[in-house]
């Protein structure tokens, strides 16, 4: 849906997961084997992945100043049990939180969130305010006040609705 470039670094995983469902049409990429393979998911992992996706969407809506789209399990609760390890590069001594080897999707998401916090990029990953969209996008606006995934689609629709209401 969005015409924006993907989120930087590991946050691209979070953005891609949230954007696996098109709320307007109801199409869910996780329903297909190809869609699940992108995230290393088995069919048995679907319920947990969908719960994680919607908890992420609620947090991204909060980043944009909006209430949750529906009642969801707290993201902190879902990520609390995610196994992470501190990986230290022997060449330069740099360290990073990473998912434990063979870690579940929640571990990879937790590592991406942690890296986004360190980089200062986490709060700029947002969800579109359009109720029939809520697509994840990375807000690259100078003031960090982006509202829609796409000005040409969701932004234009919102502005037209406001204009017609007058």
Distance between the termini: 28 Å
| Mean pLDDT across every amino acid position | 88
Topology pattern, helix = H, strand = E:
HHHHEEHEEH
Helical/strand content category? mainly alpha
Task: Give the % helix.
Answer: 25-40%
Strand order of the largest sheet: 1-2
**What's the helix count?**
6
Largest sheet: 2 strands, antiparallel
Poorly predicted segments: none
- Assembly type of the chains comes to single chain
- The dominant shape is globular
- SS elements, strand count: 4
Radius of gyration: 17 Å
Share of residues in strands: 5-15%
Relevant terms:
two-stranded antiparallel sheet; 6 helices; 4 strands; 40% helix; 10% strand
Note down, in words, how this protein is organized:
This protein is mainly alpha-helical and 166 residues long. 40% of the residues lie in helices and 10% in strands. It contains six helices and four strands; from the N terminus they run ααααββαββα. The strands form two sheets. Strands 1-2 form a two-stranded antiparallel ribbon. Strands 3-4 form a two-stranded antiparallel ribbon. Helix 1 crosses helix 5. It is globular.
Short structural description:
The protein is mainly α. The protein has helices at 11-18, 33-37, 46-63, 75-79, 105-119, 151-165, and strands spanning 84-88, 95-99, 125-127, 136-138.
Give the helix/strand layout:
Blueprint: H1 11-18, H2 33-37, H3 46-63, H4 75-79, E1 84-88, E2 95-99, H5 105-119, E3 125-127, E4 136-138, H6 151-165
Antiparallel strand pairs: 1-2, 3-4
């Amino acid at each position: 849906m969005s015409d924006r470039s993907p989120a930087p670094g590991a946050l691209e995983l979070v953005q891609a997961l949230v954007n696996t469902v098109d709320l307007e049409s109801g199409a869910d990429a996780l329903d297909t084997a190809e869609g699940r393979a992108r995230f290393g998911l088995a069919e048995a992992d679907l319920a947990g992945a969908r719960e994680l996706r919607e908890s992420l969407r609620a947090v991204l809506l909060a980043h944009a100043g909006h209430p949750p789209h529906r009642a969801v399990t707290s993201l902190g609760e879902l990520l609390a049990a995610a196994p992470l390890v501190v990986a230290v590069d022997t060449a330069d001594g740099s360290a990073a939180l990473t998912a434990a080897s063979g870690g579940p999707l929640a571990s990879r998401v937790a590592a991406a969130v942690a890296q986004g916090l360190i980089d200062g990029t986490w709060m700029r990953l947002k969800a579109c305010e359009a109720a029939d969209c809520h697509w994840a996008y990375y807000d690259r606006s100078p003031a960090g006040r982006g509202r829609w995934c796409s000005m040409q689609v969701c932004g234009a629709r919102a502005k037209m609705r406001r204009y017609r209401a007058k």
